[in-house]
Amino acid sequence: MGGQPEHVIIPLASMVLVILILVFLFYHFRKKRHHQVTPARNKFQNDNENTNASDEDLELPLFSLSTLRNATDNFSMDNKVGEGGFGPVYKGLLENEQEIAVKRLAKTSNQGLHEFKNEVISIYKLRHRNLVKLLGCCIEGDEKMLVYEYMPNKGLDSFISDKTRSKLLDWPARYHIIDGTARGLLYLQTDHRLRSLHKDLKVNKILLDADMNPKILVFGMARRFRANQIEENTNRVVGTDDYMAPEYTREGIFFRKSDVYSFGLLVLEIMCGEKTRGFVHKEHSNNLIEHAWRLHNEGSSLQLVSKCQGESVNVSQVLRSIHIGLLCVARQPEDRPSMPSVIMMLGSDGQLPAPKKPGFYIGKANLRIIKLIWNTFYE
Question: What residue stretch is flagged as signal peptide (predicted)?
């Protein structure tokens, strides 16, 4: 009888030990797996303690600096494919043969880590066939980089400004670019739950993939909009002034329809085959918008069309696109169509409303006054 407790205690002790080991292993592997799944969350939490709950649930791929150095051959000039206001862009090739575009933010950029983090998280959540896909980012030391899918045909501006390449854009290609850009902007403004403003839509922000599909590049200007918000006030006017809506440059107020204005100007550039900046006509000193408005009022809108479009031009589609472009550049935001209306007008043949006087339309009377002032003070 006295030996029986000893036989009971030994198996019980063994069972307790096994259970403790299993519990330890369970928590160990769970913790390890947790760290593997959410590397970006931990990185951002360490960099900024104010990470909110919605950010914490996001899995954002982080690229190491060494990986991007190897992919771009140490950011060699041979791999440099462009440079914008925020820094240079390099073509890269990952070990899995995937081509990437690496935007290396200038170290002199005024954008802080918190602002950078918030914008990267917002952009990463955007998923649409007409937006350039953000693959991840790199944050090491004073380096901040964005990694995008690579667009082999580069920016639309390289076609608009190059007479040789411009011949590759026949009318079907141009219409496809207009329609795709409109759909990408519609997604930003209304279809995605984050609802954003682009604030810097222009030809070099429209990139073209291998099949000439347009994709809007989003970074640096985009801002979130609440569902019921219709405007944003800002003391810091950013963007390219040639494409800015009048209310933005004048009062620092940006509406959803301020992006519509930029889209309208983009349409006129695609139709004309020239950028608004530096636009020159041999017969007058009007800018591109004034030129298009004048031709429309004269019933001669086809004269705006670039000869590079060849014989494939669909006249009714061309005239309709120019008309829609002029509707979008109306001086007053309330006179511009919404992006859902733009999509509907592009895809139908119904009657269009008459466009209102465009923004930055100087007119002959005001032009004479400006010339008089110029001659008085500078001659």
Answer: none
